[in-house]
UniProtKB/TrEMBL annotation:
The keyword Transcription regulation does not apply. It comes from Tenacibaculum lutimaris. InterPro entries: BETA-OHASE-like. One of its GO terms (biological process) is xanthophyll biosynthetic process. GO terms for molecular function: beta-carotene 3-hydroxylase activity. This is Beta-carotene 3-hydroxylase.
Length: 151
């Protein structure tokens, strides 16, 4: 396979992961997986880790398996699907945990309108402390209504 196909597969996987994340967030985290996600919707974080962090492991397992099967018996497309999942996981971590929830104080000050829109959409999602009545379940692609409207 040529490198252009590998790049395309990695990029497409990254984009598809937003849909997978949206569905997982809405139907698993706010459904039968609420037990693990509930502490994430409570104000304040008394510990370094939350039960919700278990979902990072859930998403990491398929990526690791795809890496393994993507190099055995030789390099194949599965490796690049795993790479797309990994890249999405890194982006999710940086946006969700670092930028939005500020669990790490790396990018405290930003005037970027896109990042402000992401924060606003996520705050709307978190205004509901329970598992019902949620909105805006995605992470990187959010509705235009959350971006820089003059009051």
């Amino acid at each position: 396979m040529n490198i252009a196909i590998y790049i395309a597969v990695t990029t497409l996987t990254f984009i598809v992961m937003e849909g997978v994340t949206w569905c997982t967030h809405k139907y698993v985290m706010h459904g039968f997986g609420w037990y693990l996600h509930e502490d994430h919707h409570q104000p304040g974080y008394p510990h370094v880790f939350e039960k919700n962090d278990a979902f990072f492991v859930v998403f990491a397992i398929p990526s690791m398996l795809l890496f393994y099967f993507g190099i055995h018996p030789e390099l194949n497309v599965l490796f690049f699907i795993g790479l797309g999942i990994l890249f999405y996981g890194i982006a999710y971590f940086l946006v969700h945990d670092v930028l939005i929830h500020r669990r790490f104080k790396w990018f405290d000050k930003t005037n970027n309108q896109y990042l402000k829109g992401l924060r606003k959409a996520h705050k709307i999602h978190h205004k509901h402390l329970g598992k019902h009545d949620g909105e805006c379940f995605g992470m990187l692609f959010v509705p235009f209504k959350y971006f820089n409207k003059r009051q």
